[in-house]
Prior knowledge:
By secondary structure, the protein is α/β, with parallel strands linked by helices. It folds into two domains: about 1-140, Cytidine Deaminase, domain 2; about 145-355, Dihydrofolate Reductase, subunit A (3-Layer(aba) Sandwich). The protein contains eleven helices and 16 strands. The protein has helices at about 1-15, 50-55, 85-90, 110-115, 130-135, 135-145, 175-185, 195-200, 250-260, 275-285, 295-305, and strands spanning about 25-30, 35-40, 65-70, 95-100, 120-125, 150-155, 160, 190-195, 215-220, 240-245, 260-265, 290-295, 310-315, 325, 335-345, 345-355. The strands form three sheets. It has a nine-stranded mixed sheet, sandwiched between helices. Strands 2-1-3-4-5 form a five-stranded mixed sheet, sandwiched between helices. β10, α9 (about 250-260) and β11 form a beta-alpha-beta unit.
Amino acid sequence: MESKYISRCFELAKKGIGNVSPNPLVGCVIVKEGKVIGEGWHEKYGQPHAEVNAIRNSTEPIVDSTLYSNLEPCSHTNKKTPPCVPEIIKQKVAKVVISNIDPNPNVNGKGVGQLREAGIEVVTGIEEDKGNELNRFYFKYAKKRLPYITLKIAQTLDGKIAEFEGKQSWITGEESGKFVHSLRGIFDAVLIGANTVVVDDPLLTVRNTNGRNSLRIILDGNGSIPDTAKILNLEDNDKTLIVTSEAVPNYYTEAVKKKGVELLMLPMNGSNKIDLEELLREAGRRNISSILVEGGSNIFSQFVEEKLFDELIVLQSPKLFGKGLNSVELSEQVNMELINTEHLGSDLKMVFRKK
């Protein structure tokens, strides 16, 4: 029965996808005498947490009830909303059942400790693996203050992402396209390189599905993006960030700033490429907890080579190019684990995690 209600918490928590970052996805169910009397989820960053919403939505007093939450209730005050633990104690809940302990150093067992000190029975670890999967973005960010990095590669059966360098090539089908648009809305930011802008002229917006437009990050260390690029001429240009270097000419920086796009100057590494580690640290400082990397080959190769990714999604079409641009170029082996496969029309989606 505990798993049943925690599973319901997961369902509720997912309703907050795209709206609560950098906070976790949390759902809450309150049960009294075998009946659900209240449900809630964390709906938006800066607004009440799941437990408070469930208490407010309850159809009767929750004294002596059991409260289920997929994440340990918070107990600290250094955030936008009041802590949940004092409210749970005040309401005289009899038992709290949790999936995951919150790895945030400000919580990390303190909430459970306070509940137990108040005489409330606490059970932890219910469907823990599923809870880890649901909040994998948040858990990495809470522990390391770095975003969770997913690489998304659309390639042919022989590993090509274009027929030749500099040519836009349509690789995957309609179903894969819909999946990519839905995927963008899940992440805090979507990242591409300047060459992808020059060749494909993408928008990187969410279309044909519900979802937010995430922050668009373009790596352009040499200042090669033309000011006519679609991505520099959107209504929400404040959601575009160009990462460049001190080497770019003044006319480039002035042209970009006139578009209302933010410029971030970062150092180059020994290979004369933007320092990705510094970029990810800066992303963490900006409360960016997840980044979807969409291309191109040089960007993919740099993230994989430097082992700065957590997950790789490959959308593989049944096409064969024979010759063309490889999706990734590596100098050494990188070990990954296949965790999921799914057909999207005639394409195959494969999800790998870095070991």
